[in-house]
Structure formats: C-alpha cells, structure tokens
Design goal:
The structure is a homodimer of 206-residue chains. With 206 residues, chain A is mostly helical. In chain A, 64% of the residues lie in helices and 3% in strands. Chain A contains nine helices and two strands; from the N terminus they run ααββααααααα. The N and C termini of chain A lie far apart (52 Å). The first copy, chain A, binds a DNA duplex (30 and 30 nucleotides) through α2.
DNA sequence: TGTGATTGGATAGTGATACTTCCCAATATT
DNA sequence: AATATTGGGAAGTATCACTATCCAATCACA
C-alpha cells in the first residue's frame, strides 16, 4: 500500500498523513526506493487511533506522541505507566512548589474520604485539585457528600475496567492507557444523556 | 470598584478583563463618566466563573458566551435549556443529514439498552455516537456490557444531581447547566484516580 | 490648579497549534 | 516519452486566546 492509498483508506488528506509522519505520530513505511515506501494495516490502525485521540479525546499532537510512546514501549510497571499516561491527558497542571507541605488539600481530603490512595505525584491528583478549586471559584463547590456519591460510582466503573485487564503485559498497558483516554468522551456523553433522561421525567432503571 | 481593582481582586491581567468585556463575557460596569465605570461583586463572580469554564472545563470564548447567555436568561423549559447548553459543550458535532433515517445507530442502541430516552436532536446523542465510533476506529470498541455498566452508574450520578435541583427556576437552570459543565473535570479526575487506586491493588470499599 | 495615573475604547500584534500548500528532484506508471 | 506520484522539506494559513499599545477624556492628589 502506497501513501496515497493509506490516505484514501483512512479518509485523511495526504498532506495530513505526511504531517503525522513528520511529527512522529505514524511510523515510517518500508522504503522501496528513494521516492517510494509501502504501508500496511498497522499504519491504517495507527492513523485511526491518532484521529480518535486528536478528534474525539481532544488531545494535542504532542500529547498523542507521548501517549503513543507509552503504548509502544511501556515499562514493566503498569501503575507507573498509567501514571505517566495520565500526566499527558488534559487538563495540564503545573507541578506544585517543592516546599509546599500540602499542595492539594481538596484532593487529599476527597481521596481520604473515599478511602483511596493519595499520591501527590500522580497527575490526576493535581487535576482533581484544580477541578475542585474551579467549582469553588465558580460558586458551585462540590460538597463532600456529592464527592462520595460520584467517587463511589466511578470506582465501580474502574473496578469493572480493571477486572477485564488482559493478562499479557503489553496488551494490559494498551488497554489501560487507551481505555482511560478513549472512554472518557463516552462517559461525558452518557452523563449528559442521563441528565436529560432524568430531566425528561423518565426513570426506568428498576 | 474600578476596573483595575476588579483585575486585582480576580488575579487577572487588566488586559484580559478588558478582553472579556469586549467579548461580552462580562457585563459592563455602571458608567460614572466618559472614562470611568464601577464594578461590583457580580463582576468578580462572573469573572471567576468565566475562568473556570475556560480554564478548567476547557471551553472556548464563544462557547462560554453561549452558556452564559443561557444561564442569564433561560427559557421556562429546563429540559430545552439543558439541551441547548449541552450543544455548546465540546466535542462539537455536525448536524446529521436531514435525509438520514438512522443517523446515530450506536447511540440509539446504547440508549435503548439502557432504557433511556432517545432524542436525536439532543446534542449529546451525536457526541455519544462520535465517541463510540472513535472507540471502534481506534480498535477498542465499547461492548454493550461495558456501556450498560457505565451507563447505570452515570444514571445514578445524574439522579443524585437532579434530586438536589433547586426549586426556584432560575437557580435550577444555573445549577443544571453549570453543574453539568463544571463537574465534568471532577468526574474525569476521579475516574483516573479510581483506576490508579484499583491498579495499586487497594480496594477498600466494603 | 496642575500633573501624573487611570479609564473606556479600539486596533494591532503575539505565540501556539494543527494543519495545508507549494515546491523539488527522483522514480513509477502508462 | 509523457504523465503522475513519491518522500521530503519549507513556508503559508487559519484560529484562538490573549497582550500590547495608543488615544483622548477624566480622576486623584498635592
């Protein structure tokens, strides 16, 4: 398959395929001469994944590059790899001052109330802190009751996810990292739809 | 309070306050002369809300303007207002062809399986369809089992939210629209943290 | 009452981002 | 032989969220 066929197959403009190639989001094809290379199914799949991460998840090119690197050659530590992957997901947050004794008070309190691990080096902790601070600044603070209600359900979802973790390490990393990212838009859409469903006055769950 | 005090109070650069004023994200102050106006607490609150929507939720200026318009003067129909608000939340989706008989097959199937209303005019339906299509394109399709698992928990969260709906209509719209948007980053952060918690091998919920 | 700071208002500039266009000489294809 | 396509690179474009600069009017203070 030549590059134009690859573009046609994925529905992307040729210039965009070249751009992703240049940016390292797509591995080069096998060069058959100075001006020719062949591409295969792995390139098609990768391009579709890149589009999903950029278009649906809303990542930037840099972040996609970072995520793909993790998926392509993960360490042997799933926990650490997951942590690194999350640090590349929006919203971006700054590292706290090294001297700050309690950089994420809201997040720490929330996690303690939920009985979950509190690891201030984990990027999602800073993301939670920023999100909670934003609700306060906007005048709609999350109550701890609501945090518990949300956290419990999301923990159940996470358990569901992790119960289905593939045994093979490489597949496990791919599943965890991509599943975290790709399913987030689904979650937001489902919540919006659930709100609509409840607002419409229907509540059919037994 | 003059404009420079407003900027100082909110921690925003003066130029940014002027920019939001120009873009209609902040209502003008009361002019006291040709070159002076006074601002009050409502301006402070509005600026903090704007920052939360842009910085934390990740909306663009246009979308914030649209959301604020809805909050400021909502119709009397909460359901319709919520629908309009969601249509301004990312990811943006195109309207389907008018001739398309079944524009959102994945979303329709998912909602039917969940027993929720399926209203193709509701923007979140298109968002769900796009998100599900992206998981398929990326090679990690959502199973219907997973959709049910997620959907059930998110419906519970929505019920929790709507049970706390303020009685007064204006407050109800504000609560629903802003709550939908502002709590989403919290939800994503909590899910990421729950994944981490499960991955760390701790599972303390009874 | 003068002097420097501040204001509303407007225009233009900036830096980042994600493409997109254009061009090239080498090579395929017909 | 004529035409099209390739890999590769450089430059251009569009959008976006600010940010900087300028202006004349007006304020605040000495």
């Amino acid at each position: 398959m030549r590059i134009s066929a690859l573009a046609a197959e994925t529905g992307l403009p040729l210039a965009t395929v070249k751009y992703y190639l240049r940016e390292g989001l797509l591995h080069p094809g096998v060069a058959t001469s100075a001006t020719q290379a062949t591409y295969d199914e792995t390139h098609v799949r990768r391009l579709l994944l890149v589009r999903a991460l950029i278009g649906s998840v809303g990542l930037g090119v840099q972040q996609v590059r970072a995520i793909l690197r993790l998926v392509d050659d993960p360490g042997d530590d799933l926990y650490a790899t997951l942590g690194r992957a999350v640090s590349h997901l929006p919203p971006a947050t700054e590292r706290p001052d090294a001297g700050d004794l309690d950089p994420f008070p809201r997040a720490r309190a929330a996690l303690e109330a939920l009985g979950q691990v509190y690891d201030p080096d984990y990027a999602a902790v800073a993301q939670l802190e920023a999100a909670l601070a934003a609700t306060e600044a906007a005048g709609m603070p999350m109550t701890s009751d609501r945090l518990l209600a949300y956290g419990r359900r999301l923990h159940e979802i996470a358990e569901y996810d992790l119960e289905r973790l593939p045994g093979e390490p490489h597949a496990a990393v791919e599943y965890t990292v991509l599943g975290t990212a790709l399913y987030e838009p689904v979650i937001l859409a489902l919540r919006r739809l659930a709100h609509q469903d409840v607002a419409a006055g229907r509540d059919l769950r037994g």
